[in-house]
Amino acid sequence: MLLSSLLLALVIAILLHGSSLLSEWKEAQPISTPRCKKPQTPRPPRTEVICRSDAAWKKELKAAGLAWTFSDVRNERFSSHSVTCALVISSLVAEGLAMRSEMEQAIDLQLRKVTFESDSLQLVSAIEGSSYFSKIHGILSDIHLLSSYFDEISIRFCHRENLVIEDGLAKQALRGFVPNPV
Description:
Domain RNase H type-1: 53-173
Organism: Brassica cretica
Radius of gyration: 24 Å
CATH superfamily of the largest domain: Ribonuclease H-like superfamily/Ribonuclease H
Largest sheet: 5 strands, mixed
Protein name: RNase H type-1 domain-containing protein
CATH architecture of the largest domain: 2-Layer Sandwich
Keywords: Signal
Distance between the termini: 73 Å
Number of strands: 5
CATH topology of the largest domain: Nucleotidyltransferase, domain 5
Structural class: alpha/beta
CATH class of the largest domain: Alpha Beta
Helix content: 40-55%
Signal peptide: 1-21
């Protein structure tokens, strides 16, 4: 009995000592930066393609029209797209869905150097990590994951007057939305 008590005390002492050594070791480790590739906005890269997106949202229908365009560096549009989405809870969610959709299409088109532009300052701030909105957490996770597929990427705010075409396409898509009868 005495031997088992001594053995138990010895095991506890070893565990406590090992735990304090582990804490010391962790504190001595350099702070590492995450390996996840995050969109960089301060210094836009040399870009081959500019993707602009916009969304129109109708609260009563909980629906959104999403639109995006692809342009070359001379600002010549070579592709435009729009879709409607049901069960969209806010305009911020709609803007996030539009950006995610355009990123997915840019990957499908095998575009490697891209600047994404949005007129949603909230969305761009959330992507940069300077704001947090729980409503779009999953969309932001998707955007960060998709951004790792590009060789060079920039995500930046764009004034609304620069998105006239995208705005028109998004509103047109929303006007064509037909709710699914229950």
